[in-house]
Amino acid sequence: MLLTEYAAFSCGGADWSRAFSEAVAALKAQGGGVLTVPAGVYPTGPIELISHMTLEVLSGAELRFHQDLNAFPLVDLEFEGIPGPGYKPCLYAKNAEDITVTGYGTLNGQGDYWWQQLREKKLAHPRPYLVCFDGCTDVRLENVKLTQSPCWTVHPLRCENVVIRGLRIKNPADSPNTDGIDPDGCRNVRILDCTIDVGDDCIAIKSGTEDTVNALPCENIIIEGCHFLHGHGGVVLGSEMSGGVRNVLVSSCVFIETDRGVRLKTRRGRGGEVAGVQLDNLLMEKVMCPFVFNMYYFCGKGGKLPEVQDRNPRPVGEGTPKLRDVRIFNVTARKCGACAGFFFGLPEQPVEGVTLSNVQVEMDEEAAPGLPAMMSGCPEMKGAGFYLRNARRVDLSGVRVLGVNGPVCDADESVQGIS
């Protein structure tokens, strides 16, 4: 089915919202099918997909989403783990199955309108995601270009069996919260061969916060063959991790000028356990800090509370996050800035069980000083080695650091079992 068959509902080509809804309704009546968008520009409001449907956006086609919050009705969603009403995602499916979005066309969220609304504090609700699948199974998203996202670009939420392949995601460096791909509380996700250049984290694996009702683990995640350009972090776990994150494999990826390479961010109160993470065959260049494990992350609701930032031991409970069993193999990082690695656990729950093998980090003597982690009291660094606080069983024997200023490993008395 061609979208242009419904051009009579397009307001002379000025608004294709109804044309999309009529076409999707026709597919629903026949139990599903393929909706093809030929080359051209299609201004539209949000589009809701259904089960057993393929949306094919052909090369030369651009879905250009309206710059008008009145065109986006409110739906029940989550933003940063907090449930509540938000503006409907530009491309959206809820509790559906067998959905494919494909083609070499473009989804343009025209996000500059939303970023300005945010900066002027004119938004009563969270901005729309560019693509969001909520509670869906058997989802494929492949080959399309996604740009100017109002908020997070691709957000699978509580989904199962998701394949994301060949995406080209581009958002400006100064655009707020425009993460690339954020699977949240999902199982069995593959992210393959994507190029991501955004204003926040490139990929962020999440599992809800202490405010999330029934936070689900994010598990069985494969990230392979991706390019990360700029962004605050290349591959990130958290900061929403109350449901836990486990069984993550990141391999054969390139990181260029991301602030951090692989990054975990969490804090007291979040709870959840990160375990079973393996990083293999990675290349990084001009990354401020290749590896950051920060359990004092201060951004977001409650991040700067005294009990969150307290450096003294506190009782271990359900709200105590855990990080263990991380293996890092075959990594080359060149022209790095602040430090080779930054591991900062909690005194009551250290970072535990991290192994690095065949890892070489080369520091750039011309790089500017930087803050490797977003936490209160984080020291500014330039050309430092591995900085460890509250860590146990960290094996650095397979690491070589070149051009370091000072010791290869700066560990205080809180650190145990370094080799």
Can you give a write-up of this model?
This protein has 419 residues and is mostly beta strands. It has a domain at 201-419: Pectate Lyase C-like, CATH 2.160.20. The chain has helices spanning 17-29, 112-119, 306-309, and strands at 33-37, 40-44, 47-48, 53-57, 61-65, 74-79, 82-87, 91-94, 97-102, 106-108, 131-134, 137-142, 145-147, 154-157, 160-165, 168-170, 187-192, 195-197, 203-205, 218-224, 227-229, 233-238, 245-256, 260-265, 273-285, 289-294, 322-336, 339-344, 351-363, 384-389, 391-395, 399-402, 409-411. The strands form four sheets. The protein has a 20-stranded parallel β-sheet that branches. A seven-stranded parallel β-sheet has the order 19-22-24-26-28-30-33, with no helix packed on it. The chain is elongated, with a radius of gyration of 22 Å. The relative contact order is 0.07.
Task: Please specify the SSE layout and strand pairing.
Elements: H1 17-29, E1 33-37, E2 40-44, E3 47-48, E4 53-57, E5 61-65, E6 74-79, E7 82-87, E8 91-94, E9 97-102, E10 106-108, H2 112-119, E11 131-134, E12 137-142, E13 145-147, E14 154-157, E15 160-165, E16 168-170, E17 187-192, E18 195-197, E19 203-205, E20 218-224, E21 227-229, E22 233-238, E23 245-256, E24 260-265, E25 273-285, E26 289-294, H3 306-309, E27 322-336, E28 339-344, E29 351-363, E30 384-389, E31 391-395, E32 399-402, E33 409-411
Parallel strand pairs: 1-4, 2-5, 3-8, 4-9, 5-10, 8-11, 9-12, 10-13, 11-14, 12-15, 13-16, 15-17, 16-18, 17-20, 18-21, 19-22, 20-23, 21-23, 22-24, 23-25, 24-26, 25-27, 26-28, 27-29, 28-30, 29-31, 29-32, 30-33
Antiparallel strand pairs: 6-7
